[in-house]
Amino acid sequence: MAPIPLSERPLDKYWFIPFFVLNIAVITYMIDIEQVTTMPPIAGKPYPWWPPRAVVDIVRWYGYKYDPLLIARPPFWRASIYYDIFFFGPFYFYAIHAFTKGINAIRIPAIIFGTCLTTVVTLILMEEIYGEYAAHDPFFVVGVNLPWLITPIAIVYRMWMGGERPFDTDKKTC
C-alpha cells in the first residue's frame, strides 16, 4: 500500500507539519533555549551566544508584560523546557519527515507526544490562570498557548482514528 500523497492530506500539510516546523525553528531551539541559557533573566547580564539577542529581548518583554511564569521559571517550568528540548525537539524533526512522506511508524510516537504535550500544557495553563505566577492577562496568555493544547489533541485523534496505518491509501484520512 502506498501512502496518500501529502497534497491530498490538507490537515497534515497545512496544520501539523507547519506546527512541527514552528516548534523547531522558533519555540524549542530559540525560546526554550533562551529559557535555560539566561537563567535568571537579569537586566544587564550578558547575552548568550544563542538565541539571537532579539529573541531574548522579545521573550523578556513578553514575560514582563504578560507572563510572569516565563520570567520566574520555577522548577516544574524548567523541567518542561528541558523535556521540550531533549524529547519534543527530536520528535519534531522525525514528525516532519514522517508526516511529509506518510510513514505509518510515526503513529505511536505521535500519540505519546500528543498525550505528553497535552499534559504539560495543561499544567502550565493552570499555573498561568491560578498559580503563584498567574498571568497579568490570563485570557491573552491562554489564547497564545492554545495551539499547543489543541494541536496535540488533534494529532492524537488523527493517529488514533487512522488505525495502525494512518497514511495508507485504503483509508480515508485527514
From TrEMBL:
Primary localization: membrane
Question: Which UniProt keywords are given for this protein, alphabetically ordered?
Answer: Membrane, Transmembrane, Transmembrane helix
The membrane topology of this protein is: Multi-pass membrane protein
State the coiled-coil residue ranges: none
Q: Which subcellular locations apply to this protein?
A: Membrane
Q: Name one GO cellular component term.
A: membrane
Transmembrane stretches, by residue range?
A: 14-31, 76-96, 108-126, 138-157
- Residue span(s) of domain EXPERA: 11-156
Q: Which residues form the signal peptide?
A: none
- Keyword flag Transmembrane: yes
The name of this protein is EXPERA domain-containing protein
